[in-house]
Amino acid sequence: MHFTLKNSWWAALAFLLATSCTSKTNNEQTSTGTTAASDTTKYVLVIHGGAGTILKKDMTPEKEAAYTAALTQALQAGYSLLKQGKSSLDAIEATIHVLEDSPLFNAGKGAVFTHDGKNELDASIMDGKTLGAGAVAGVTNVRNPISAARAVMEKSEHVMMVGPGAEKFAKEAGLEIVAPAYFFTESRWEGLQKAIQEDSTKSQLDHDGKTALKMGILNKDNKFGTVGAVALDNRGNLAAGTSTGGMTNKKYGRVGDAPIIGAGTYANNQTVGISCTGWGEFYIRSVVAHDISALMEYKNLSVADASQQVLDKVGKLGGDGGLIALDKNGRVATPFNTEGMYRGTITADGKIEVKIYKE
Ligand code: ASP
After folding, report:
1. What are the pLDDT digits (tens) for 316-348?
2. What ligand 1 atom has the least distance to the C-alpha of 224?
3. Which of 164, 177, 176 is nearest to 137 (CA)?
């Protein structure tokens, strides 16, 4: 009798301790007002569909609805896997497939064109649990470059493969190969013509014009549109991925930040998962994604403070864009220094938030 009572006393104490801890952590608020998920059963998924000159005045209600629907569909694809107990890697891959397959975003179908009229795609993925990573750059016929990046991570001893070699590897890994024409969209083609035209006018005006003019970046219709996702699964594992066609009118062979681990993508279970979007050269030079993780690891900064601090550095160098960050406790930050950034979150309870413009 005495023994049973003592046991139930301990059980009650353990229950009280457990519930008081849970309610405390669950009530913490993130920088964006989303409930934090220190409890690892509170999985979350954050996505972006690119940052850039996205102004409400330039949007039609139909366009806005189409972007919102695509972002929502992408969030739901990853969420349904997380809910079944699948890994954060599976969730971000499925999420990014939806965005790559949509012509609305600059990744997979709908990718922007290089100066000589080609689609050269870059992607990367990172596993926060093992610090394993994979990336491909300059691929022209892999339908879903994020899966090629994952294959490099899981089926090779390498981290990054480029061009025809990466394409050969993707085919051998059983991924879907398409004709390069699959990626064509009329609007991106028009975007290239416009960028080339602006580029030549600006070059005539400014003989000193360096990167900005040569990249056609001053074309303010250049809404970047890269895609990315970061997820935290119910085992507390973070994963991040980014996929892009790069920048309109980029030079043949140019590689941006999206496939560079530590610049456009990073994930570490001890700190944070990050996916960036913006003017890639500045993100590479600022080593953005790893810098955020380092500030959190070495300086104990919050995800919101670390992300903002690093984005400010990008801005001071002259770069623009944004990023999504999800820390090991489920706190989210989505800063950007452009007019807008397509972005969204879904929490364990299935609550979806999709945003496009500045708050
Ligand atoms: N960061 C990408 C790149 O420079 C572009 C983007 O985010 O839209 O390739």
Report:
1. 999 999 999 999 999 999 999 999 999 999 999
2. 8
3. 164
